[in-house]
Design brief:
This protein has 668 residues and is of the alpha+beta class. Helices cover 60% and strands 8% of the residues. It is built from 25 helices and nine strands. The protein has a six-stranded mixed sheet with strand order 4-3-5-2-1-6.
Length: 668
């Protein structure tokens, strides 16, 4: 026998009229936003791993029967890292395969550059950049296979094995800052597995953003699934009383929610695909993206669409327990949904677990798990707090609007929690990121340019040559000889000379270029070289912070506006009865606002404080200190978030006016 679930679901959907269509459109819009945001963040995570893989070939991998010498050096121009890969074919050995991005192994004297570096070479004077490389008539081009980003600065230089740039002293071991920025080995190919530190941590940082945004997406999807919940409950309760079985009721709801969710999620996913070229222009880490790096693949694409659809479906079905067990109570709007004390017990237990777990050393993976535990605990705890606030506010209410708000909070704490939950959980991200701008207290090396030499005797000769070269270039600088036991200088315990260059970044780049012919073959460097590792961490966290905060507040605002509009539609009959009883529209609107303000102030403050605590633990993990100036950013985030929340709620004010325009018909 054919099941009547699907035909009846379609019939009721068509018969729901404009109100039903509005709910479906809002739910589909929420699903689209959720799917789009998650796909973007997953794309950043997957793409970061792909970009890191594109840099592994630059790290020399030693081979027993090597055919060539590879040396990696890092220099800086305009504060941006420039990777210089020097290659030399060993005589009498078999031919070495071409590195990624090149068609052939470079011959001596050939220079290949990335497109971004080629553009910079034409833009800057030769004494600021081009003179660091061998003079050539034209540069070859490194293809995308050898680059992590279109903006990356990379050069491949063909040299002789005896060139000083290929020596062990030139490539590594000169000081502790060379780690991951310099290396040398005899190789037989480009099978390295170690990515540069400029890309290796991007995936973990992006994953942190995914975890922090996962719960706001869940909140938005849950809100979408419960759109029109009150109207749906009344309709299904009537069907239940007419003889429909609980399985049929659940089936009808699941089909309706899954259909709406699938259409919305697929729309958001297709929008992600259509916007891939635009998304690729958004810089992260080493720069913008190649479009194919941001394609998550069919597996992730389908998984996100199905996950958002499932969240909406589960959210809608979870509302049907009372319809299945007590349809008469639902039809009469009896038995308000109370919350139980077990929620608070579970929340306290979760906080205790987090406190104990963060008492010692915490890995990045454990920290992500603790974030998920915290989100889940607060999701359970929120409705209980809202319920208690409603009872407390109702006991001390002195105005009609406050009394109405308190009654709504107490009668439907889960619904009120859904309105504010997005911003409450976004408050955690604001507290976490606003004070997590790490400060490592690096020494201030000012405008120093360091040149490493083999020994103290060579340092004195190098100092004389450095003064001559700088004077010819018109650079004003004070050149000093630094001994090997001076660990407080930019040389970090290596023998050499330090030039104190005045005049800013351009002068400093010129000094690095003119001094490239001096020393032991190790390229001259500035404080950018010495602080690169720490700055890479801070830059990535700052970028993910900005993106996560922005998306969190967008999701929170969308969730609040969506839930506020849904509440107006669901309470159409209640508002109509209140208007018939003489309640002014202004009082109803004030009650809606206070219904939001009360839980928002209490709960958002708690999550923001927890976010600051989580940030403190992260900073302690990496040996950094809290950036106190982030307090201003935190205040701005809270104010902007609150204003956005109220703007979203105010957006449903015309809808309230419209549904109560004819209170007699609305009440019926």
């Amino acid at each position: 026998m054919r099941s009547p679930v699907l035909p009846l679901t379609l019939h009721l959907a068509k018969a729901s009229g404009r109100r039903g269509l509005q709910s479906h459109l809002l739910a589909a819009g929420a699903a689209a936003v959720g799917a789009f945001v998650m796909l973007v963040m997953v794309a950043a995570t997957v793409g970061s791993g792909t970009r890191a893989d594109h840099t592994t070939w630059r790290t020399p991998a030693p081979a027993k029967n090597g055919t060539a010498v590879q040396a990696l050096a890092t220099t800086y121009v305009r504060g941006e890292p420039l990777a210089v890969v020097s290659l030399a074919q060993l005589p009498g050995r078999s031919a070495t395969p071409a590195p990624p991005g090149l068609d052939t192994f470079p011959k001596q004297g050939e220079v290949y550059v990335s497109p971004a570096l080629a553009e910079l070479l034409h833009k800057l004077p030769a004494n600021q950049l081009a003179d660091r490389f061998p003079e050539v008539k034209s540069y070859g081009t490194i293809g995308a296979a050898g680059l992590a980003s279109p903006d990356e600065l990379v050069a491949v230089v063909g040299r002789a094995p005896s060139d000083r740039a290929m020596s062990q002293a030139a490539a590594e071991g000169a000081n502790w800052w060379d780690e991951d920025q310099a290396g040398r080995a005899v190789i037989s190919g480009f099978s390295g597995t170690k990515a540069t530190f400029f890309t290796t941590g991007d995936r973990t940082t992006a994953l942190l953003g995914v975890v922090l945004l996962a719960m706001p997406v869940v909140v938005l999807s849950a809100a979408a699934g419960r759109l029109g919940a009150a109207r749906r409950e009344q309709r299904l309760a009537a069907l239940r009383l007419a003889g429909a079985t609980p399985r049929q009721i659940i089936g009808m709801t699941a089909v309706e929610a899954a259909g709406v969710g699938a259409v919305g999620a697929l729309t958001g996913a297709l929008a992600y695909v259509a916007l891939l070229p635009a998304l690729a222009e958004i810089p992260y880490g080493v720069g913008s993206w190649y479009t194919d790096q941001l394609w998550v693949g069919p597996g992730w694409f389908a998984a996100v669409v199905l996950a958002v659809t499932a969240l909406i479906t589960v959210s809608a079905v979870s509302m049907l327990r009372q319809v299945a067990t007590s349809p008469l109570g639902v039809a009469q709007q009896a038995n308000p949904r109370r919350t139980r004390l077990i929620r608070m017990v579970a929340f306290v237990a979760a906080l205790g677990y987090i406190w104990v777990s963060t008492g010692g050393e915490v890995t990045s993976r454990q920290l992500l798990v603790l974030l998920l535990v915290f989100y889940g605990a607060f999701w359970l705890f929120g409705p209980w707090v809202v319920d208690q606030l409603g009872r407390l506010a109702g006991r001390f209410a002195r105005r009609p609007a406050t009394l109405l708000a308190a009654r709504r909070l107490s009668d439907d704490p889960r619904g009120a929690w859904r309105t504010v939950s997005g911003l409450v959980l976004a408050g955690f991200a604001a507290g976490f990121f606003s004070v997590s701008m790490l400060s490592f207290g690096d020494a201030n090396y000012g405008d120093q340019v360091a040149v490493i030499t083999a020994n103290a005797t060579e340092s004195r000769h190098t100092a004389v040559e450095a003064r001559t070269l700088l004077d010819r270039a018109g650079i004003t600088a004070k050149v000093t000889v630094v001994s090997a036991d001076d660990y407080d200088s930019l040389l970090g315990g290596s023998p050499g000379v330090v030039a104190h260059v005045s005049g800013g970044t351009e002068r400093r780049d010129t000094a690095v270029t003119v001094l490239s012919s001096l020393g032991s073959g190790h390229l001259p460097y500035t404080k950018d070289y010495a602080t690169a590792s720490d700055r890479t961490i801070t830059d990535r966290i700052a970028q993910v912070s900005t993106a996560t905060l922005a998306m969190s507040f967008v999701l929170a605002t969308a969730s609040a506006g969506l839930t506020a509009a849904a509440n107006v539609l669901d309470r159409r009959r209640v508002y109509g009865l209140l208007r018939l009883a003489g309640t002014p529209l202004k009082v109803l609107d004030r009650a809606r606002v206070r219904e939001t303000v009360l839980p928002l102030v209490v709960l958002a403050g708690g999550t923001t404080a927890m976010g600051m605590y989580g940030s403190y633990q992260l900073n302690k993990l990496v040996g950094a200190t809290i950036n106190t100036s982030g307090l201003i950013q935190l205040i701005v985030c809270v104010v902007v978030g609150a204003l956005a929340m109220f703007a979203a709620i105010s957006g449903s004010r015309p809808l309230l006016r419209r549904v109560t325009a004819d209170p007699a018909q609305t009440a019926d």
